[in-house]
Amino acid sequence: MKNTIMKDTITKYTHIMALLAACTFVFASSALALPAPTDEIKPTLNAIITILLDPALKGEEKKTERRTKIMAYVNSGFDFREMSQRVIGKEWRELTPEKQDHFQRLFTKLLENAYIGKFESYSGQEIQYLGERIKDDRAIVTTQIENNGQFIPIDYVMIKKEVKWMVYDINIEGVSLVRNYMEQFKAILRRDKFDGLVKLLEDKNSTFE
Predict the structure, then answer these.
(1) Per-residue b or e along 143-173, where b marks 16 or more CB atoms closer than 10 Å to that residue's CB
(2) Tens of pLDDT, residues 73-101
(3) Residues 37, 133: contact at Cβ < 8 Å?
(4) What distance in Å separates the CA atoms of residue 129 and residue 142, rounded to the nearest whole number?
(5) How many angstroms separate the CA atoms of 20 and 14, rounded?
(6) Is the residue at 200 inside a domain?
(7) Is residue 10 included in any domain, yes or no?
(8) DSSP of 15-30, one letter per residue?
């Protein structure tokens, strides 16, 4: 009789523990679930738009403050390490960590100088989110923006990094930003090697100062 009671108690205890474990797994999985790629990029773009439209941040005298605020959001949503690695391809693996970091800083600054100015011409055009495609740790968020009656397609190519999706390429009207720089840098690396590319980026960035 005692054995029967003990078996019943153990069985009930086992079932309760299994149920608790299952609940814990469900809650843990929900807590760790990644937001959808669109839900990652949309707040970043909205925050940048808010800065661009803020009257208190308009004008040349506010340029540094405005760009600092914009880059804070860009850095949180864009993976410049991944971009830097992709634009110079296999050359990346041959670099020391110090050279990798230096190149990343230069390339990030180049993108900031080249594109933030274009962002600043934004005047309230609506961004339309058309959908997303996910495959493993990659995703593409499809958008379009209207400009003077024409719709410009812009795709954000994203990679899953630990607990969030981050942008590592942008396709504007079918043209990849990363591939465009990759082709340019490939020719420079072949001709002038890595040090020549670094010098070119340093010189280019200095023209924006």
Answers:
(1) bbeeeeeeeeebbbbbbbeeeebbbbbbbee
(2) 999 999 999 999 999 999 999 999 999 99
(3) no
(4) 6
(5) 10
(6) yes
(7) no
(8) HHHHHHHHHHHHHHHH
**11 occurs within a structural domain:** no
Tokens of 78: 């864009």
Predicted structure pTM score: 0.80
Residues 11-42: pLDDT tens digits? 443 443 333 333 433 333 433 578 999 999 99
Least Cα distance to 40 among 141, 130, 125, 171 occurs for: 141
Number of structural domains the chain divides into: 1
Dist CA 113 CA 61 (whole Å): 17
Cα–Cα distance, 173 to 154 (Å, whole number): 6
Lowest-confidence pick of 6-10, 37-41, 58-62, 162-166 = 6-10
Identify the DSSP state of 149. T
Please give the C-alpha separations between residue 8 and each of 11, 14, 16, 19, 36, in angstroms, as whole numbers: 5, 10, 12, 16, 45
CATH number at residue 46: 3.10.450.710
In a domain, 84, yes or no: yes
Q: Which token pair is 36?
A: 């959808």
Q: Residue 76 in contact with residue 166, Cβ under 8 Å?
A: no
